[in-house]
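Milestone 3.1: sequence recovery, worked example.
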């Protein structure tokens, strides 16, 4: 199973490209890392400090996340494979990739956080 950070980064790049946009530098990877840190906080034992650190770096290096609510369904399709829940791999506090169930609702909440961040 591929780490969810890779899946989300690819989806962010794809959706941006479909609208003629492009992330600066490795912005899609940084924003995907922020999303995964948020999911780790919500679903595992992640830390708020890690989320804020990733968010700050993504904003400073990659600019704003290139997503709006009109693209949520497309992102969900790419990341959740047309399902309402998918098992994904995200890092726990020690950095070890662990499987968790990601619901579509939690995925959409994470996108809201990225967009508002």
């Amino acid at each position: 199973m591929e780490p969810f950070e890779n899946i989300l980064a690819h989806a962010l790049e794809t959706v941006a490209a479909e609208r003629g946009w492009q992330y600066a530098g490795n912005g899609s990877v940084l924003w995907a890392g922020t999303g995964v840190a948020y999911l780790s906080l919500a679903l595992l034992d992640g830390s708020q400090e890690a989320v804020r650190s990733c968010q700050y770096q993504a904003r400073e290096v990659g600019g704003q996340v290139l997503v709006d609510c009109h693209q949520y369904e497309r992102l969900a399709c790419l990341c959740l494979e047309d399902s309402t829940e998918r098992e994904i791999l995200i890092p726990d506090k020690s950095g070890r990739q662990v499987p968790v169930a990601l619901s579509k609702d939690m995925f959409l909440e994470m996108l809201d956080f990225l967009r508002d961040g």
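The first strand starts at residue 85 and ends at 91. The helical segments are 4-18, 27-43, 48-62, 72-80, 104-116.
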